[in-house]
Design a protein that fits this description.
The chain contains 4 helices and no strands. It starts with a helix and ends with a helix. Helix 1 crosses helix 2. With 64 residues, the protein is an all-alpha fold.
Length: 64
């Protein structure tokens, strides 16, 4: 039943696609480690914030 619905509505197929899932999971895990480091080592707060800001700007620039 569900296969027929997913074939008829292409937008629903997006939710079944698992391509790129590993990359998102690794990015989330990296973000959690960075947050834990910031929480436990306040002296690294500025350095990590600068790195994450640069990464964010690179992602935004590459998306445009």
């Amino acid at each position: 039943m569900w296969n027929g619905i997913f074939r008829r509505v292409p937008a629903l197929g997006f939710w079944r696609d698992s391509g790129g899932q590993d990359l998102i999971e690794y990015a989330m895990a990296t973000g959690m480690v960075a947050l834990a480091a910031v929480a436990t080592m306040p002296q690294l707060n500025g350095a990590i914030s600068n790195i994450l800001t640069k990464i964010g700007s690179l992602i935004i620039d590459s998306a445009v």
